[in-house]
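Dear H.,

Thanks for agreeing to be a second pair of eyes. The structure we're designing against is below in token form, covering all 345 positions.
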């Protein structure tokens, strides 16, 4: 969904403080300009897209596709934890630990940045690389990954999902299917009903929290339908982040990818959808609870010591961003009964 505001209008909104006389309609108008609605009814997919989505769903949940049978996409993105794993460092093949906290994949459809360091062009590239990276499925080669797909009985499903291709069973097509599935995973929340004009869809506290969220400056980075996920930002604009988070080895962020000085400590601004369900927080999982994360963000990014009341109000707003999990995510698919082939295939 495209937002209707221009950069100029966004600038004016963010730099025009609310007054005590601002009423419900003023707040709603501002929120509509800053954010975007996840609609109640998603566009009905055509037959091929539906086949690709279901194929991607099966791939997402299938542990047999990893080198040792221990890992699948769902291992790091578990439904019961709103597509996270609640670990400081996610674990892949052979229990190899990743460097950062796994982000939720819910509502990626409304985000333009996939990874903490923006080192993936899109969801397709992330899915493609997952098949052979030792931090994910761990296959030694493309050929090995394809062999696992074939042994698991996927060839007919690829033929249905990619009927116009000469060779349907490819990792590129697998990545397309996984990306199509992930883009289908959206979580509509009470905040969306509010944006549609139902003032009572969120509590009075949440509305006060929304006002605080905008007034304090949080929405300068956390905006759009996903309430984030659209830009990169330095973590620690006003202070060294490790001075507050107390992490022993500060992550250099995007600089490790680009080798540019200006990218030091630059990370993705994460989506705040379902944020109440996805602790711990930040790339290094240093904030164990939401109150701490809110307070630290105020200090690090805005140079503001938020009061207990401000933290409580902002948290009330963030609670209104929790949506219902889509059925095709909370329920695992039925997979074929083909056994795991083992590491030496």
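And this is the sequence the design step returned. I haven't edited it by hand at all.
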């Amino acid at each position: 969904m495209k937002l209707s505001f221009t950069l100029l209008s966004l600038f004016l909104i963010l730099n025009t403080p609310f007054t005590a006389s601002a009423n419900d309609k003023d707040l709603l108008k501002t929120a509509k300009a800053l954010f975007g609605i996840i609609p109640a009814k998603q566009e009905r997919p055509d037959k091929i897209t539906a086949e690709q989505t279901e194929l991607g769903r099966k791939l997402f949940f299938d542990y047999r596709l990893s080198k040792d049978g221990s890992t699948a996409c769902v291992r790091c993105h578990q439904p019961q934890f709103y597509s996270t794993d609640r670990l400081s460092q996610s674990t892949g093949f052979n229990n190899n630990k990743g460097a950062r906290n796994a982000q939720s994949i819910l509502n990626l459809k409304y985000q333009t940045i996939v990874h903490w360091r923006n080192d993936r062009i899109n969801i397709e590239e992330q899915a493609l690389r997952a098949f052979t990276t030792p931090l994910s499925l761990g296959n030694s080669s493309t050929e090995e990954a394809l062999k696992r797909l074939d042994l698991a009985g996927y060839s007919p499903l690829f033929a249905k999902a990619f009927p116009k291709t000469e060779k349907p069973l490819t990792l590129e097509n697998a990545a397309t299917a996984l990306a199509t599935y992930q883009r289908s995973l959206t979580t509509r929340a009470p905040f969306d009903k509010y944006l549609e004009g139902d003032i009572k869809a969120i509590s009075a506290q949440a509305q006060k929290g929304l006002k605080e969220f905008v007034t304090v400056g949080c929405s300068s980075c956390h905006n759009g339908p996903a309430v984030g996920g659209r830009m990169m930002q330095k973590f620690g604009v006003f202070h060294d982040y490790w001075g507050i988070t107390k992490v022993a080895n500060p992550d250099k962020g995007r600089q490790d990818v680009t080798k540019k000085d200006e990218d030091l400590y630059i990370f993705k601004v994460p989506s705040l959808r379902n944020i109440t369900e996805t602790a711990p927080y930040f790339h290094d999982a240093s904030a164990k609870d939401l109150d701490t994360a809110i307070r630290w963000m105020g200090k690090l990014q805005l140079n503001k010591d938020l009061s207990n009341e401000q933290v409580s109000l902002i948290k009330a707003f963030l609670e209104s961003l929790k949506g219902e999990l889509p059925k095709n995510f909370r329920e695992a698919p039925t997979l074929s009964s083909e056994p795991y082939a083992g590491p030496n295939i």
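Two observations from my side: The two ends are 45 Å apart (CA to CA). Confidence is low (pLDDT under 50) at residues 1-9.

Warmly,
E.
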